[in-house]
Write a structure and sequence with these properties.
By secondary structure, this protein is α+β, with helices and mostly antiparallel strands. Helix 1 packs across helix 2 and helix 1 (20-35) crosses helix 3. The chain folds into two domains: 20-106, no CATH class; 108-218, no CATH class. The protein contains six helices and six strands; from the N terminus they run H-H-H-H-E-E-E-E-E-E-H-H. Strands 1, 2, 3, 4, 5 and 6 form a six-stranded antiparallel beta sheet that branches. The longest helix has 18 residues, at 37-54.
Length: 222
């Protein structure tokens, strides 16, 4: 009788499986280590308060509610300044809360972007906030457009081997705002701060999702 093989991604000699579901599971497990329990609740509370103040409260009847909750937790783990202006994920991977699985190291290469999406046999994402342009090998649920991008997505990806893999499902933004997004992204480069601020983008998306007949240009105060 032989020992069962270790779970994919946990052994030192195995590469983690580059699938969205796997990356999402690693993010969930890392967030649970940081934010579960009484100590975790104390870490999370000020970050949730900041999210609600800057973006809004996620409601029971919100469209894509579960995805929004996952995005909020990912933001609290990966992006929000926590200790010494550094996010919890960076502190976690340095051992601030004890040893962590080697499989989590790949999460250091996660990136959140507002992407123009160019689907095809090999799809491409172009980040309107940061300028990153990266291929995606996984099939995307979009048809190619001969004249340019097919969608605008907020998405968290993990960068491995020169390609990106979605770590969560994407959040689609109103496509009619693409010219505004592009104009602001062009104005950003060379400037001191991004013109496309996450707080304004996410707050606008939440308001637009609750008022579908409204003109998005009146809801996204960019």
């Amino acid at each position: 009788m032989t020992d069962a093989p270790p779970p994919a991604g946990l052994a030192d000699n195995l590469e983690p499986p580059a699938t969205p579901a796997w990356f999402g599971e690693q993010l969930d497990e890392a967030a649970a280590l940081v934010f579960d329990g009484e100590a975790g609740a104390r870490r999370l509370a000020p970050l949730l308060s900041r999210w609600e103040e800057e973006i809004g409260t996620i409601r029971e009847d919100d469209q894509d509610r579960e995805l929004l909750q996952a995005m909020r937790t990912d933001w609290a783990l990966c992006d929000a300044p926590a200790v010494g202006a550094r996010p919890w994920l960076a502190l976690l991977l340095e051992g601030a809360l004890g040893p962590v699985p080697d499989a989590w190291r790949v999460l250091a290469r996660n990136h959140i972007g507002l992407f123009e999406v160019f689907p095809g046999k090999v799809s491409w994402l172009r980040d309107l906030r940061g300028g990153l342009c990266v291929p995606v090998l996984d099939p995307l649920p979009l048809l190619p457009e001969p004249s340019g991008p097919a969608a605008v997505w907020e998405a968290r990806v993990v960068l491995t081997g020169g390609t990106a893999t979605l770590a969560r499902g994407p959040l689609g933004y109103p496509f009619e705002l693409l010219p505004t997004f592009v104009q602001l992204s062009q104005a950003r480069f060379g400037g001191p701060e991004p013109k496309l601020r996450w707080s304004a983008l996410r707050r606008g998306w939440l308001q637009f999702s609750r008022a579908r007949r409204a003109d998005p240009r009146n809801l996204f105060h960019l």
